Automatic annotation (TrEMBL):
This is DNA damage-inducible protein 1. The gene is DDI1. GO terms for cellular component: cytoplasm. CDD domains: RP_DDI, UBA_scDdi1_like, Ubl_Ddi1_like. The lineage of its organism: Eukaryota, Fungi, Dikarya, Ascomycota, Saccharomycotina. Residues 243-321 form the Peptidase A2 domain. GO terms for molecular function: aspartic-type endopeptidase activity. It comes from Maudiozyma exigua (Yeast). SMART domains: UBA. Its main location: cytoplasm.
């Protein structure tokens, strides 16, 4: 067999050394003492993250103690444990000193870990194309995967630290490993990688590495996805009154506020037999329904019906009006095509400011765990029934089909934004839930509450 020896004391790499399988460990130690400046009385030898028992296994062959062809032996530095300027692992642990490995040694140790851990190798093979082709070739492995592996080696650092005994500032030391987790957890996982709970944890760590890499790529190549999206508004007129209408393709019904109904003189046309409740994330009180009114968009007059709610959003154009007039939202040209005419969507400076907030940045938390995702597709839209002379006022009874019952993150939002949403007829809990689901954007939250 051929063995490679890395001596961190001298900073040199020896080998490959040719040995027969029946060579005694004592003979190997004698060879290392002669050629590698190894002192068995002061230093240890690591193989696959474990210290070789040089005393009890001296007369056993290298094959019997588990050495294989192309294995790497590591002779690490051993610091004085009484030196208070260093925080290092206690002697006797089975974790090699990863922080002292050079880049080449670190890559080789990573390759050895993959070779000797079938489950870990299988997981990485699914994430790294061509891994199997280079795994048995040390130089090819280093050339192809070395930069990727070294990019993950990021948690080992040295910094100034004042000890508690009044000594001079020293070095703060932190070990690293391929998963960038604590050495205790890494040791536990690697000692029994085939345990179901360890398999699950290793899979989660590998998946998290992929997610983190995707997030870094997104920040670098598509940073625009982390900005706040401006909602779609258009200019129109109702009875000569200019209105900035919110276009919401996710809303079932077109909604008008009681305030706008008064301003446009449509209050007298409200059919109050259609009173009820619109249920979604929250509950909105339906004042009634306007069955027919003309809306002027550009030069075209378009008939529309409205559900009237006590809300601060003047007008929300829902899917009923959009489908009725075969509308097309053209985001490339930033226009709405409806009833054979086109009208431009308003710019960010022109949209209503009633629901503006200063905290709309879209950033992950420090541990890179994403917030609870918005799940709009399972939120039912308001259901409106026709008049009924025998039953009390009807409500839409479809409850929110929330597929995630986990408690959302506790966050603070601008009091004005919360108050404005509560003024729409929703409770504080409903408003906070809607803000949580929409990343703190009041406009999105308002649209979600009315669905």
């Amino acid at each position: 067999m051929r063995l490679t020896i890395s001596n961190e004391i001298t900073g040199q790499l020896y080998g490959p050394v040719d040995l027969s399988d029946d060579t005694d460990l004592a003979d190997l130690i004698a060879l290392l003492e002669l050629d590698c400046q190894f002192d068995s009385s002061q230093n240890d030898i690591y193989h696959q993250m474990n210290i070789l028992d040089l005393k009890n296994n001296a007369n056993r062959s290298v094959e019997d103690i588990g050495l294989k062809d192309n294995d790497l032996l590591l002779i690490p530095n051993k610091f004085n444990r009484n030196n208070q300027h260093f925080l290092i692992p206690q002697q006797g642990t089975n974790i090699p000193a990863y922080e002292n490995l050079s880049d080449d040694q670190y890559i080789e140790q990573f390759r050895q870990d993959l070779l000797n851990n079938s489950f870990l190798k299988q997981q990485f093979m699914s994430q790294i194309p061509g891994l199997q082709d280079v795994l048995n070739d040390r130089h090819a492995f280093s050339d192809r995967l070395g930069p990727f592996i070294l990019s993950k080696r990021k948690n080992s650092y040295y910094g100034n630290n004042n000890n508690n005994n009044g000594g001079a500032g020293g070095f703060n030391y932190q070990q690293t490993n391929p998963f960038n987790i604590s050495q205790d957890e890494y040791k536990r996982l690697m000692e029994n990688p085939d345990l179901p709970e360890n398999k699950k944890r290793i899979t989660e760590l590998i998946d998290q590495q992929v997610i983190d890499e995707q997030l870094r790529n997104a920040y670098e190549y598509t940073p625009e996805v982390f900005t706040t999206v401006t909602m779609l508004y258009i200019n129109l007129e109702i009875n000569g009154t200019p209105v900035k209408a919110f276009v919401d393709t996710g809303a079932q019904m077109t909604i008008m506020s009681t305030k706008l109904a008064e301003e446009t003189g449509l209050t007298k046309l409200i059919d109050k037999r259609f009173i009820g409740e619109a249920r979604g994330v929250g509950v909105g009180k339906i004042i009634g329904r306007i069955h027919q009114a003309l809306v002027k968009i550009e030069t075209q007059f378009i008939p529309s019906s409205f559900v009237v709610l006590d809300t601060q959003i003047d007008l929300l154009i829902g899917l009923d009006m959009l489908k009725r007039h075969q509308a097309c939202v053209d985001l490339r040209r930033n226009v709405l095509k409806i009833a054979d005419i086109e009208t431009k969507f308003l710019g960010e400076a022109d949209i209503p400011k009633g629901f503006e907030t200063t905290d709309t940045t879209n950033k992950p938390s420090n541990d890179w765990k994403p917030d609870e995702p918005s799940n709009f597709k399972n939120i039912p839209v308001p259901q409106i029934r026709g008049p009924d002379t025998t039953n009390p006022p009807l409500t839409s009874s479809a409850p929110l089909n929330n597929t995630n019952n986990a408690t959302p993150h506790v966050r603070s939002y601008p009091p004005d934004a919360v108050k404005q949403l509560m003024d729409l007829g929703f409770s504080r809990d409903e408003v906070i839930k809607a803000l949580n689901r929409t990343g703190g954007n009041p406009e999105y939250a308002a649209a979600l509450l009315f669905q």
